[in-house]
Amino acid sequence: MAANKSPARPATETASQPIGVFDSGIGGLTVVKALRDLLPNEKIVYLGDTARVPYGSKSASTVERYSVEMAKMLIEQDAKIIVVACNSASSVALPKLEKTLPVTVMGVIRPGAQAAITATRNGHVGVIGTRATIRSGAYEKALRALDDDVRVTSRACPLLVPLIEEGWLDDELTDHVIARYLEPLMREGIDTLVLGCTHYPLLLPAIERALGSGVKLVDSAQNCAVAVQEFLDRQQVRAPAGAVGSLEVALTDSPDNFLRVAKEALQLDVGEIRVREVLYGAAL
Amino acid sequence: MAANKSPARPATETASQPIGVFDSGIGGLTVVKALRDLLPNEKIVYLGDTARVPYGSKSASTVERYSVEMAKMLIEQDAKIIVVACNSASSVALPKLEKTLPVTVMGVIRPGAQAAITATRNGHVGVIGTRATIRSGAYEKALRALDDDVRVTSRACPLLVPLIEEGWLDDELTDHVIARYLEPLMREGIDTLVLGCTHYPLLLPAIERALGSGVKLVDSAQNCAVAVQEFLDRQQVRAPAGAVGSLEVALTDSPDNFLRVAKEALQLDVGEIRVREVLYGAAL
Q: For the whole model, what pTM was predicted?
């Protein structure tokens, strides 16, 4: 399990620091949405690496390097915890981030795996995600660490993110692509499916249509937000009940069409967007 | 028109230098294939920016910055001409590259536009490409510069690259996506369609199926190779007939599944792949 680093400052001071969230792009806003609903008093600073999106098709060492750069930019904004709202980055960069950063790092893999183990009845879990996430085997490892006997069937679904970014959320063509990706998993007999990419909750109705009622869905964004809440409570560094929560969104490239799609689908008020240049190899 | 810069060295010496080709990823290999067929005696060095692919969804200023970094790495390899085998980069970065680089820069837009003007009978040309290419209006500008009266109908097709990278080249689902993108253009009455993305030639049979026989296709990769040949002949810096041509491929991230798809579809022998780190802001 990720080592929880106790903040050096007094808990009351740390409590008012922001939660830092990063993602390869816009998809991580599904985690932000879950955090805002669950922790309305927290300040959240979000950083999306839209200048280099997607991470899911890139090598582990490149994703690791990008993730450290993003996290360091959030640490400079005084983040009390770093949430890796990206399955690709969580899959391959978590050990490096935990070694490098002075605060606790929360990924989306472990909370998702935990929820899947709780949900499955027949012990057969399906996982869908980007190429990087599936190739890493991170969900299999996390699931097996919790239950030796679990059976895992995984599938990379590289077309789902572009379909979501095109805004074809409720669309016959998207339904066909989802059916092609999911049919082999259903034939194998999964009873639980982990949405192992923070974009995928935007396709929830379409995925539910494809699966029918026999398969339970595990949303890694939602479970990650719950894990963050538990951590803040355990460390007693949650923002006080009277505090005014806020959301600040920064991207490494100017926003495009997909930000509009995401804001509408999530009903999320993101205010003004800052564009920040990546600090290459910045010292912490 | 791009200013042709005469090489400083004697033409015989320049002739033996390589042609430098860069792209946001692997798609530019369609240009390399056309160059190899047309100019078999040339040495070609190819650089694909797979660490930051795709360029097509990113802002003009980010694509400009990445393009200059890629071109500088090719200049360091002594390239006698820089071929921008990427429509997104050609659309937005050509002026900056021409200002910055000491050699001639050849993009894919102008050769494609020239071929479309030659091909059209009814004066109505369609253009498909990435979001960055279509948003830039570069094809419209190039087409209008050649013929004031041309009518242009453009459409961004952001799903085609992911479909190609998934390897679904001859596939009913891909046919449906293509039909959705192309039907409005056909209804408007185009008689010529520019494939404004170097990936798209890999979908040539599928696009021909969707269009039927009434619409002529213009492949920007092929026309770019012809323009390179004409330039080398004009400057008398073509490799001598007896020279042994070669191809050296380098990528900024380790290759994935799509390199295999492209090599097979193009029947291209790329040998061993080098992985090179990007030189951020490198001085020329």
A: 0.89
